[in-house]
Amino acid sequence: MRVEIEVWRQDGPAEAGRFETHVVDDATPEMSLLELLDRLNDQLAGAGVEPIQFESDCREGVCGACGVTVNDTPHGPVPRTPSCRQHLRAFGGVSRLRIEPLRSAAFPVVRDLVVDRSALDRLIAAGGHVDVMAGTAPDADDVLVPHDAAELALDFAACIGCGACVAACPNGAAHLFAGAKLAHLALIPHGKLERGRRARAVVDALEAEFGPCSSYGECVEVCPAGLPLTAVAAVHRERLGAAFRGRAD
What we know:
Elements: E1 3-9, E2 18-24, H1 33-46, E3 69-70, E4 73-74, E5 96-100, E6 109-111, E7 114-115, H2 118-127, H3 147-157, H4 164-168, H5 175-186, H6 195-209, H7 218-222, H8 230-245
Parallel strand pairs: 1-5
Antiparallel strand pairs: 1-2, 3-4, 3-5, 6-7
């Protein structure tokens, strides 16, 4: 199987980027996008050329590190699937791929396909946490969580932080990511005390780092965790609730 790859190369954050075209003649339908890049890097290294830099870790769709843009779509053509789980057999006979980094002003390119997603980390640092008493672990039934609330909280907690939602959004918004964190922590009793402070801090970080949400919905289509658009609504609901509750919490 012959695959022509147009791949983004950039030597550093301050350097100009460009596309390079390479051909992998021995690709197979079972290959994932990352395995295709591995094969291409074998060819480049064998020819004495600097391999393409890209990120990966688990390669099982869990860590979120592998995100790239394929033919103008974050992660690739298969909806709600991370790059490492996108296989060539699902591309419908496509033999030319354009692979570039996740594109967003919030994600500056570090090198080639690697981007700096620390803006998402700053959102988590602003409010993606709860305050707990340190010391001996409490009994499992000390803090009761209703079953339905726990299940819904786990659904929102499934976000892997890959950043595809930001790259897919025409505005570069991160409301799906932030809303998932706010909704998750609002549904469990452990985070109730700082709920208002969390909402204010996260929204402030959103406005400082990312674009505004216009509810286009592209973020949902590329989210590997299948987060619903209701996560976006959680951002406004939690911030408005914090305003009504006042500065006490």
